[in-house]
């Protein structure tokens, strides 16, 4: 690429929503920006944003406006599919008016119809594949309501592993969040992707799940996002997801 071609690096950063151009210039001067695995500190540097891999503080940024990355709070009773031949409510109904054109969206971690919470959709097939692959161990966090009072030591038991009918499974973290008479709210973090794994694990230790919400996938959090709403992932969230899966 000739020096006169391409786009100035600080302009690319500002267009990607990373920072104002002035702040982006300081980031470059401070050695916080990499282009194709090389730290760049020259303000006049021009790049091809469609080809170059650009990172800020080690986290990749995306400047491809054809890529779609969405966070959805899937309501209870809705299916995770993009369409349903039986006419049941599905995620495709939510995104139909948000994503124009024939963009094929991939699910990142489906949720059962009776489970609420965070679902990621993207047309970046490689990112979706890696986020779902157990070898990258991207953690997912859930809030589960179970009946009764959870005994001390249950967390250790779940962390050590439980034998299920399709092999052992274990959680990465377990905590009691709240207790009310007859019910306990627990937080479970694991990187397992097997079907209904949280429900199966808790049922196996005698605490069937009454309500379940997924609150986090990696660094992406549901926060106060209401059921049925969609938002575009921030560049910071995207960068952290790319970093987590080595992209």
TrEMBL record:
SUPFAM superfamilies: Alpha-L RNA-binding motif, Pseudouridine synthase
Keywords, comma-separated and alphabetical: Isomerase, RNA-binding
InterPro entries: PsdUridine_synth_cat_dom_sf (IPR020103), PsdUridine_synth_RsuA/RluA (IPR006145), PsdUridine_synth_RsuA/RluB/E/F (IPR000748), PsdUridine_synth_RsuA/RluB_CS (IPR018496), RsuA_PseudoU_synthase (IPR050343), S4_RNA-bd (IPR002942), S4_RNA-bd_sf (IPR036986)
RNA-binding S4 domain: residues covered: 7-67
Catalytic activity entry: a uridine in RNA = a pseudouridine in RNA
GO term, biological process aspect, one: enzyme-directed rRNA pseudouridine synthesis
Enzyme class, spelled out: isomerase
GO molecular function: RNA binding; rRNA pseudouridine synthase activity
This protein's record includes keyword Acetylation: no
Leader peptide range in chain numbering: none
Pfam families (UniProt xref): PseudoU_synth_2, S4
Listed EC numbers: 5.4.99.-
PANTHER family: PSEUDOURIDINE SYNTHASE FAMILY PROTEIN-RELATED, RNA-BINDING S4 DOMAIN-CONTAINING PROTEIN
Protein family (similarity comment): Belongs to the pseudouridine synthase RsuA family.
UniProt protein name: Pseudouridine synthase
Organism whose genome encodes this protein: Mycobacterium gallinarum
Protein encoded by which gene: rluB
């Amino acid at each position: 690429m000739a020096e006169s071609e391409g786009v100035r690096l600080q302009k690319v950063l500002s267009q990607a929503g990373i920072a104002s151009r002035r702040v982006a210039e300081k980031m470059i001067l401070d050695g916080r920006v990499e282009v194709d695995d090389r730290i760049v500190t020259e303000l006049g540097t021009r790049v091809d944003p469609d080809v170059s891999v650009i990172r800020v503080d080690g986290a990749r940024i995306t400047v491809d406006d054809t890529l779609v990355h969405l966070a959805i709070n899937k309501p209870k009773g809705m299916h995770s599919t993009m369409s349903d031949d039986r006419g049941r409510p599905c995620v495709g109904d939510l995104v139909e008016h948000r994503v124009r054109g024939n963009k094929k969206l991939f699910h990142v971690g489906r949720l059962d119809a009776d489970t609420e919470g965070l679902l990621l959709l993207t047309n970046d097939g490689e990112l979706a594949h890696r986020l779902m692959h157990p070898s990258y161990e991207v953690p997912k966090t859930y809030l589960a309501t179970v009946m009764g009072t959870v005994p001390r030591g249950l967390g250790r038991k779940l962390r050590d592993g439980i034998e299920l009918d399709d092999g052992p499974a274990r959680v990465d973290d377990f905590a009691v969040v709240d207790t009310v008479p007859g019910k306990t709210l627990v937080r479970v973090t694991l990187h397992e992707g097997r079907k209904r794994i949280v429900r199966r694990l808790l049922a196996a230790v005698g605490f069937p799940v009454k309500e379940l919400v997924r609150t986090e996938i990696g660094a992406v959090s549901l926060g106060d996002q209401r059921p049925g709403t969609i938002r575009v992932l921030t560049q910071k969230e995207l960068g952290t997801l790319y970093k987590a899966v080595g992209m």
